[in-house]
Design goal:
homodimer, about 210 residues, alpha/beta, Rossmann fold, 2 domains, 4-stranded parallel β-sheet, LHPP/HDHD2 (chains A, B), inorganic diphosphate phosphatase activity (chains A, B), metal-binding (chains A, B), metal ion binding (chains A, B)
Chain lengths: ~210, ~210
């Protein structure tokens, strides 16, 4: 309906369990009219940062996301890139990422999002933000977050559309990542009451959406 | 040498990978003159708290620690007790503890320590504090820490010896848990430069020991 209305549209996702290609295929399979060029996602944003700053990552990301980093030099790592690794969040992999970080003179941790949790068909799951906090605490560092709710991430999406923030509205289900992030960027935000939504979070949060539907 | 000098001595440990009995057996095997009644440890302290407050824990602790909670009612949990679960820090177990917590109207998280990491023969490992931070963030709660560096924990040990804080000195290798915790309790503290010790942490820390040896 948004596309039919003629409004400009961009999909801002913190999806880090799949390449953009596979993410789009999945949504197309569900009947969505979407293609790769309409998607703003954390992994390609991280790759640009790595390249700009000469960083070589140790990856703790989902197996299916690894192809997004195919072009990146990963030898002799000087940073850790953390995504929602899901089943790859093993005790051994977490300790390994920790050892790489703590071994650096000045640890650099790049996190593909800071979500708390999300819902899957078999229940709620801890999201990348929880593991980010674990590594931040253990290494006494602050992660650089790529993806929602980072201001830079929303600004990229706006620039790609050529729309100023005050003429854009963000639609999402996450009070922090979607609503809060977009509002800090000067956009309005609308919260949908989908699976992850719980009324208690709106009450507890310091962020209020312009509207809930 | 401390025992021979006639000074009162108590072992304050955040050991949560074994019962006190097994912890003492291990140290005795290394030649230490130590017995269970000289040990102040987090699990029995947590059991007292659970009983006082009518709390029924979901346990995410090391398999070998479970016997310390044998007497505790664990049906229909209304809190989560987190210890250094080591290999039991699986993706599935972390998600399960998270789901129990987030399902509570007012989540109660009790953490047996807040250590960042420790060293084993095969390298550095994330300690319970890192996983505590992950669950705190995901559930937007603050854990109640039992064990070092909690003031109450040091006070218990002092009371058991019948010694006021200003007449006691804490000896440990951890700048936060040992040195900082003891100092906040009014004790002096001495930091040993053992395996975990790294000079950079003393520089970065806001805590300074009275002496390092």
């Amino acid at each position: 309906r948004i596309k039919a209305s003629g409004l400009k549209l961009r999909f801002c996702t913190n999806e880090t369990q799949a390449t953009r290609e596979n993410f789009v295929k999945k949504l197309q399979g569900m009947g969505f009219d979407i293609n790769v060029s309409e998607v703003t996602a954390p992994a390609p944003a991280a790759c640009r940062i790595l390249k700009e700053r000469g960083l070589r990552p140790h990856l703790l990301v989902h197996d299916d996301l690894v192809p997004e980093f195919a072009e990146v030099d990963k030898t002799n790592p000087n940073c850790v890139v953390l995504g929602d690794a899901a089943e790859s969040f093993t005790y051994a992999n977490l300790n390994e990422a920790f050892r790489v970080l703590i071994g650096m003179e000045k640890p650099v941790l790049i996190s593909l999002g800071r979500g708390r949790y999300y819902k899957e068909t078999d229940g709620l799951k801890l999201d990348v933000g929880a593991y980010m906090k674990a590594l931040e605490y253990a290494c006494d560092v602050q992660a650089e977050v790529v993806g929602k709710p980072a201001k830079r991430f929303f600004e990229s999406a706006l620039a790609e559309m050529g729309v100023p923030p005050e003429q854009a509205i963000m639609i999402g289900d996450d009070i922090v990542n979607d609503v809060g992030g977009a509002q800090r960027c000067g956009m309005r935000a609308l919260q949908v009451r989908t699976g992850k939504y719980r009324s208690v979070h709106t009450l507890h949060s310091q962020t209020s959406p312009q509207e809930q539907i």
